[in-house]
């Protein structure tokens, strides 16, 4: 969770091998966090969130959205990675995933199915100036 109007970054974080039982919001990135008793005013700046991995996470959720990525319009979450996720509802049935301005990849079994926007895969060649060539992943 990050505060609206924040700055800086959260990157290169891995959550791996976690078992959960009867948990609210088990897999979450929330860039609109507000713990005030009054509604927080929307702000355009946000902490940059990228290269976050969730690997081998299993269990039950008390909330319908077992995966929830609520990211900023001005600073979307990028390079989110889901691998071998299996979350169901504690009450029985299928959990769901919610994504807003979140992109990345998934592999293996991901349940509920990933809602991440797929990022462009591969290298992009860019010419910088007249003599330099830069490859960006």
From TrEMBL:
Record bears the keyword Cell wall biogenesis/degradation: yes
Keyword match Secreted: yes
GO function terms (MF aspect): polygalacturonase activity
BP term (GO), one: carbohydrate metabolic process
Family: Belongs to the glycosyl hydrolase 28 family.
Keywords, ordered alphabetically: Cell wall, Cell wall biogenesis/degradation, Glycosidase, Hydrolase, Secreted
Subcellular location: Secreted, Cell wall
Superkingdom, natural source: Eukaryota
A Pfam match: Glyco_hydro_28
Protein name: Polygalacturonase
């Amino acid at each position: 969770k990050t505060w609206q109007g924040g700055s800086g970054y959260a990157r290169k974080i891995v959550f791996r091998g976690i078992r959960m039982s009867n948990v609210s919001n088990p897999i979450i990135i929330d860039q609109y966090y507000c713990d005030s008793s009054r509604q927080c005013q929307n702000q355009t700046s946000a902490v940059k969130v990228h290269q976050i991995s969730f690997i081998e996470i299993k269990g039950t959720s008390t909330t319908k959205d077992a995966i929830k990525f609520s990211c900023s319009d001005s600073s979307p979450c990028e390079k989110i990675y889901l691998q071998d996720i299996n979350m169901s509802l504690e009450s029985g049935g299928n959990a769901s995933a919610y994504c807003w301005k979140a992109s990345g990849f998934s592999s293996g079994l991901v349940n509920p199915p990933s809602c991440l926007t797929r990022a462009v895969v591969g290298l992009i060649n860019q010419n910088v100036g007249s003599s330099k060539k830069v490859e960006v992943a």
